[in-house]
Q: What sequence folds into this?
């Protein structure tokens, strides 16, 4: 035991001097978090509406004010040519043209009502749809006001104290999962493939140190590193980007430990089949890149195309990310993420068996 | 003098190649012993069997009183090794490596004293990968001494070193023997074996074909009527080199 702990401490001391490992372990995920945190991808933003007012009367003024009062709408007014130009450049989501004969008055039989022309930005379907819905609501309200009739249906609004889920809240668990994966796979593959090739392990095996203690120290060192990395990332997310973690930190810690165990097993299993330093980076990318995009690190897995969904559902990182995200954003308890935990454990068991069967300390 | 290494009928085969083919010899306590031979003669395989790193197909080897086949870990604890083509893990300071390896033997050592013994006291706080070739060999010997071994195995310790570093290492090896440790080395440099070793074994094709002191082997050869044109020289090129560049160690 003294040997294992002592060796672990020496490994950690050496790790402090390994700038490449420090970069990829700590700075790389922080850069990701900062970039995505600043960009704030997830936010819906505003519906940018350009109004071309050809009537310029009391009625069109009322209509414009009505739209501008809606918070989600960012209303600008201008000449038709300018507004359409802005639409083409992507600066507007919708351009509404108010006809010259615009008025707000009860419709009389045989008389046409004024017609609004809408130009819509096809690339911003979501914003256009929201804009249309708001516009229709404004028209309805004005209609009821003019016809002095009551709507046939009314809604009663109950404000629910909903937590406003920011993108950084979604992102944080994904980055944690990615970091745990990278640490497990990269630190094992590079160290063992290189040390094996350079004869480092052979030299150590010429001492009475048992293989079991050797492996135990290396695994323990990486578990400690994983906890440190997650700690730093969480601190930056919470204090730097005001991310919130609703669930218990103990459950997060448990997930970090079993997640690290999973990816350490993956690293050992993979390095069983890699013999040279040159193969290592390629094999690593092959295994980690698909998971970075299919397991919901940066974006929701809703975006994964249907034919890849069955693959995405079963990837090791998917289980870890889903579990971490449930705990962080929904405050899930351990029993609520039971299925994901089972997924992590099953993967760990499979990979452990492969690693145990094929992993060799020497070539 | 008692035998500290005794080898009897050792065999090891790799596929079609009989790397070690019935090797028997003894190394006496306190001597400097060399195993010589061309590449592929089976030197390294023999040494690695004695170090407990490989198992022999047949035969028996007792090292420092321990049967290598029965207790490889026991042998590893009593010997010190310096392997050919091996390296130390990166990002460790020299003194940390000494302490780390002591830990592998469940010991604690005075790393500074050990580094001082090999002339690396001022490099204690340097990363091992930043050391020069000669310094790295000396560090490797310091590490091989952490468990106060009874036998020190050195596999081609001076390969790739400049003449100054080579001579410096010879001094170190003599020092170690002086303190009572038996030294077992392999080398390609026959002048090195001649000046350094008490006895040498010459190996070829997996077999030991000669074993005696360098002087006795040379005497026997001359006795068989061997002659070569003798060029009477008071010095050789290495003497010139060392005269011009000095005996001082160079550390790039």
A:
């Amino acid at each position: 035991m003294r040997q294992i702990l002592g060796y672990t401490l020496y490994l950690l001391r050496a790790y402090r001097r390994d700038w490449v490992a420090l970069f990829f372990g700590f700075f790389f995920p922080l850069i990701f978090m900062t970039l995505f945190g600043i960009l704030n991808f997830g936010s819906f933003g505003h519906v940018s509406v350009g109004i071309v007012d050809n009537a310029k009367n009391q009625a069109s003024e009322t209509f414009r004010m009505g739209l501008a009062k809606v918070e989600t709408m960012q209303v600008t007014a201008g000449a038709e040519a300018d507004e359409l130009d802005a639409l083409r450049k992507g600066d507007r989501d919708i351009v509404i043209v108010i006809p010259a004969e615009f008025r707000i008055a009860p419709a009389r039989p045989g008389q046409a009502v004024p017609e609004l022309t809408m130009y819509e930005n096809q690339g911003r379907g979501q914003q256009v749809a929201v804009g249309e819905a708001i516009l229709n609501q404004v028209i309805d309200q004005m209609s009821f006001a003019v016809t002095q009739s009551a709507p046939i249906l009314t809604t009663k609004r109950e404000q629910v104290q909903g937590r406003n889920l920011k993108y950084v809240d979604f992102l944080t668990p994904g980055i944690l999962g990615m970091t745990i994966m990278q640490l497990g796979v990269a630190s094992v593959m590079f160290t063992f493939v290189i040390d094996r090739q350079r004869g480092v392990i052979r030299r150590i095996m010429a001492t009475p140190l048992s293989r079991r203690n050797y492996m135990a120290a290396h695994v323990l060192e990486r578990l400690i590193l994983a906890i440190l990395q997650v700690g730093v990332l969480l601190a930056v997310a919470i204090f730097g980007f005001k991310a919130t973690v609703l669930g218990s930190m103990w459950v997060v810690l448990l997930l970090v430990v079993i997640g690290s165990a999973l990816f350490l097993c993956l690293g050992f299993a993979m390095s069983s089949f890699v013999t040279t330093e040159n193969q290592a980076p390629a094999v690593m990318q092959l295994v980690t890149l698909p998971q970075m995009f299919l397991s919901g690190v940066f974006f929701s897995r809703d975006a994964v195309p249907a034919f890849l969904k069955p693959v995405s559902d079963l990837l090791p990182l998917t289980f870890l990310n889903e579990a971490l995200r449930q705990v962080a954003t929904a405050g899930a308890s351990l029993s609520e993420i039971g299925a994901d935990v089972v997924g992590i454990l099953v993967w760990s068991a499979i990979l452990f068996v492969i690693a145990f069967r094929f992993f060799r300390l020497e070539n | 003098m008692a035998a500290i290494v005794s080898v009897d009928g050792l065999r090891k085969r790799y596929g079609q190649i009989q790397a070690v083919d019935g090797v028997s010899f003894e190394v006496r306590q306190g001597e400097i012993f060399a195993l010589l031979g061309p590449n592929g003669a089976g030197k390294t395989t023999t040494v690695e069997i004695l170090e407990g790193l490989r198992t022999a197909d047949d035969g028996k080897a007792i090292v420092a009183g321990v049967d290598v086949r029965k207790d490889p870990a026991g042998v590893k604890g009593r010997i010190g090794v310096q392997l050919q083509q091996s390296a130390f893990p990166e990002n460790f300071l020299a003194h940390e490596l000494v302490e780390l390896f002591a830990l592998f033997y469940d010991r604690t050592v005075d790393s500074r004293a050990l580094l001082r013994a090999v002339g690396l006291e001022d490099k204690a706080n340097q990363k091992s990968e930043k050391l020069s070739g000669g310094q790295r060999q000396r560090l490797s010997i310091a590490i091989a001494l952490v468990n106060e071994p009874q036998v020190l195995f050195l596999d081609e310790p001076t390969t790739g070193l400049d003449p100054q570093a080579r001579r410096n290492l010879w001094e170190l090896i003599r020092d170690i023997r002086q303190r009572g440790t038996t030294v077992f080395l392999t080398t390609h440099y026959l002048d090195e074996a001649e000046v350094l070793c008490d006895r040498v074994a010459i190996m070829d094709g997996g077999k030991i074909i000669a074993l005696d002191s360098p002087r006795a082997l040379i005497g026997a050869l001359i006795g068989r009527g061997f002659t070569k044109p003798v060029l009477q020289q008071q010095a050789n090129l290495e003497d010139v080199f060392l005269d011009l560049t000095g005996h001082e160690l160079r550390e790039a």
